[in-house]
Amino acid sequence: MILDPAATWSLHPQLAADTLGVGDLPLSRVLISLDANYPWLILAPRRPGLVEILDLDETARVQLMEEIAGVAGALKQVTACDKLNIAALGNVVPQLHVHVVARRKNDPAWPAPVWGRVAPRPYDQAKLDRFVAALGKKLGLDGDC
Amino acid sequence: MILDPAATWSLHPQLAADTLGVGDLPLSRVLISLDANYPWLILAPRRPGLVEILDLDETARVQLMEEIAGVAGALKQVTACDKLNIAALGNVVPQLHVHVVARRKNDPAWPAPVWGRVAPRPYDQAKLDRFVAALGKKLGLDGDC
Fold first, then answer.
1. Residue B24, Cβ density class (10 Å: 0-12 exposed, 13-18 middle, ≥19 buried)
2. Is the ipTM of this complex over 0.85?
3. H helix or E strand, kind and range, residue B14
């Protein structure tokens, strides 16, 4: 795809409504999905016009993979989950974003994927604050994004 | 995780039952999911004991990303799909594998993810043969795996 070099990136309004920012890695914004059913992070590469992973050049794809691995490792440490689910879907929100979800064998969708299974459940604020703080510490991020 | 260096990789029996091999890239075996509802490829890195992308070292993760991009690009060219869905889930089959699915806005699950939505539909053999040949040509693979 042709990207407009003068365009600036901003988070898609649907992602902005459904998430809380943890901070920015070199390529991607790290977001927490506001669904307390699952510890669920989203990486959104901060370049305008991206839809597919293929729209990134090789250098950026490698950076995205390393950011996925870093975030997945932090999430696994923070949650002691049974399995990680990592996915770039984008059928509903076209802006490129990668889901990194900590799955537990007793979560409401297991073993199915999380999308569209049960209604999102609001976070208890204190629990969300602890989750943000634990992730931010692991990733060296301060929540400023 | 600790990997046994003497162990040899073999494709998980469930993946073997559900797919057809297209060929081997440097890291991964390329498989076609035998569900004619969607043009659906699976990459299975050929190293024993892998469960998570995190179980790969950085060099292998980068290789996996480039193989994902190569396969996704070939699939997009062959199918002229509306969207690619790329995912490492593994909640049911624990051996590390990455789904690369060509989605169309009129496919039976759109816009939901493909997993668990509708029953797999068998391929017409001639259609499957054409799909294997077209992919093999794009990827430089000969189906021998």
1. middle
2. yes
3. helix B13-18
